[in-house]
Amino acid sequence: MMSKIKKLMSDCKCIDCDNRFCAFAVLNDSEIKLLCNNHAEVKFKKKEIIIKQGALTTNVVYIKSGLVKEHITGPNKKEEILQIVKSPFFLGIHAMFSDRINQYSLTAIEDTTVCFINSEILKILLRKNSEFTYQILMHVCKDQINNFHQCVNKVQKHLHGCVADAILYLADNIYESDHFKLSITRSDIAGLIGTSRECVSRALAKFSHEGIIDLNNKTVKILNKSLLQKISEVG
DNA sequence: GCATTAACCACAG
DNA sequence: CTGTGGTTAATGC
Q: Residue A199: which nucleotide is closest by CA–C1'?
């Protein structure tokens, strides 16, 4: 009997997953196994759509590795980028407690690995393991607070403040370096801060002329970070 | 009025 | 996909 259980556990790949989200760390072995038996790991290439706005979903999306944009097409048919997220990250939890329709799309920006996890199974785990629920709730709240700040910033700040914000965000949170190669387009940056690609181009060129950044096609090097932060603050 | 800001359009690398 | 120039509309001295 024990050996049979052991055998089953050894078949569970999730137990050895080296990219486990902090929330998963509080699951016990049988819970991990339940998760494992109800998930599918899928690799996406750059630009591939992971989930589409409007589609019915029975899964939650866990970004295991890679970079993803969360975007929504508004009533005027214009695309807005809600956020760009890096692994590890949990998405699609909202749909699970509402009408199960995706309110937004997810698209891979770089090659990405995601785990689709069955929503009903996740609900069982949330009911069963309060520490897990606590972790997930914390994640959802942090995510929402970020969204609030981003929303206020893009509505109230001027163009240059928004572009400065975007550069700092990419450097600090996404690429984790002040010298990085963009894997997103100017249009994406524009979508992120709610402006046009032309304005992003002009703002970047201006920053470059003023010696705040070094710009070379897709590579960006921040030369004067404190000034960039100042621009971000005063908007 | 005049200046500034930023969106939209068109065109070209 | 980007960069540039021209135009236009809104807003603030």
A: B6
Q: Which nucleotide is nearest to A197 (CA to C1')?
A: C2
Single pTM value for the model:
0.86
**Residue A218: closest CA among A196, A190, A185:** A185
8 Å CB contact between A229 and A169: no
A215 touches strand B (CB under 7 A): no
Determine whether the distance from the CB of A71 to the nearest atom of strand B is below 7 Å: no
C-alpha separations of A176 from A110, A168, A183, A205, A215 in Å? 16, 10, 13, 22, 17
Residue nearest to nucleotide B7 (CA to C1'): A196
Residue A36 contacts residue A13 (beta carbons within 8 Å): yes
Radius of gyration of chain A (CA): 20
A95-141 pLDDT tens trace: 888 888 999 999 999 999 999 999 999 999 999 999 999 999 999 99
Task: Answer yes or no: is A198 CB < 7 A from strand B.
Answer: yes
